[in-house]
């Protein structure tokens, strides 16, 4: 059994999209055998987001951060994730970006972040409801062997 917590970065003007993205992400996770353990809403404040990510990584296999991935000053999702991770997962980042950009070249304006915190993997992806599946689908099944390896050792 794999567990995932979703953290929603509350960006002004995007509340409905982030809510829809949470439901879409939950369905994707559950269709891949990952248990959704709930969501947390966090303002785009570095210290608050760091605390939420670290706390959720202690009790979940995956922490999915939705939103805060654009190019504006308040978009801090990937920076927070990368400031916390023990090991950056550039292959996961590349797979997510490649899949998204092939589907819609305008998504090159968004950023992602991925890495480990202890025995958890943290993913920071755009929270737009029409594109969130582009980022999750290509990598979600490849995370399971990582967790299985941890559990067997």
Summarize the model shown.
The protein has helices at 15-31, 46-57, 77-84, 90-103, 132-136, 140-152, and strands at residues 2-9, 34-42, 62-66, 87-88, 113-117, 120-125. It is α/β, with parallel strands linked by helices.
Main attributes of the structure:
single chain; 153 residues; alpha/beta; 45% helix
Helix content: 40-55%
Main beta-sheet annotation: 6 strands, mixed
**Gyration radius, rounded:** 14 Å
State which percent range the strand residues make up: 15-25%
What value does the average pLDDT take? 94
Total beta strand runs: 6
SS summary, helix count: 6
Order of helical and strand elements: EHEHEHEHEEHH
Principal-axes geometry comes out as globular
Structural class per helix/strand content? alpha/beta
State the strand order across the main sheet.
2-1-3-6-5-4
Kindly, what is the distance between the CA atoms of the first and last residues, rounded to a whole number of angstroms?
16 Å
Oligomer class? single chain
| Unreliable parts | none
């Amino acid at each position: 059994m794999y567990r995932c917590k979703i953290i929603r970065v509350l960006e002004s003007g995007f509340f409905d999209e982030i809510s829809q993205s949470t439901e879409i992400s939950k369905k994707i996770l559950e269709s891949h055998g990952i248990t959704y353990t709930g969501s947390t809403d966090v303002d785009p404040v570095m210290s608050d987001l760091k605390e939420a990510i670290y706390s959720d990584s202690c009790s979940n296999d995956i922490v999915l951060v939705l939103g805060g991935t654009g190019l504006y000053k308040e978009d801090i999702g990937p920076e927070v994730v990368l400031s916390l991770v023990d090991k950056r997962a550039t292959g996961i980042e590349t797979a997510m970006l490649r899949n998204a950009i092939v589907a819609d070249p305008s998504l090159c304006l968004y950023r992602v972040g991925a890495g480990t915190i202890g025995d958890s993997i943290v993913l920071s992806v755009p929270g737009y409801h029409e594109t969130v599946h582009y980022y999750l689908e290509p990598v979600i099944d490849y995370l399971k062997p990582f967790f299985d390896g941890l559990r067997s050792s």
